[in-house]
Specification:
Blueprint: H1 5-8, H2 13-19, H3 24-29, H4 42-49, H5 53-65, E1 69-72, E2 75-78, H6 84-117, H7 123-154, H8 161-184, H9 196-228
Antiparallel strand pairs: 1-2
Helix pairs in contact: 6-7, 6-9, 7-8, 8-9
Amino acid sequence: MIINYNSLSQKTIGQVVTEHPELVKIFMQYEVDFCCGGDRSLEEAINRDTDEIEAIKKALTVTLADAFQVPLNGRSINLSSLSDAELIEKIVKTHHAYLRETLPEISELLFKLLNVHSENHPELFEVHRIFGGLKTELEGHLIKEEKQLFPALLARQVGLETLILTLESEHDGAGDALHKLTELTNHFKVPKDGCKTYELVYEKLKNLVADMYMHVHTENNILFKRVKGE
């Protein structure tokens, strides 16, 4: 079956994001609400949230055509075709490396933003608090995966279901935090009195949301399902 905009248009946008997290970046680019308005159909969400209807439809179609294609030995293959070892290597080198670099950067920049702009934008206190908790949880999460789950999985150890359930629960918690950050920042719209640091922080937060959707999808819906035999 060919997956394109037309085949998804009557699904809820929340369902579309769950099935195709690679589209999150497009929705954010065109300011289409996929969090609070997740129960609307994709068609309704696009028609209501953006005037650039044809442009977003084209962007969604192009992205879907390239979905989950990754380079390997000079050719492109589907993400689900990777072996466990290849998939784990991609997760660590792509998503984990990204988080290790980005989380401290956002934390430092957000503290500066709080110091300068919190008087006029008190919501930044809550943004700072939620992000701080998310950062702490994700740092511990990376270690659990790299030091516990991934080595055990590659060694073909059994009895990993409890650990995987814990990690999936942590994914859910991270998703909740990202939704709250999206709502608090009005989908990362920089206020009129925002400075360059404001713009940079919100852009980095937008990229974090998009990367985390792909990260969680790769683990929950591909790697973890293999381990659980689903």
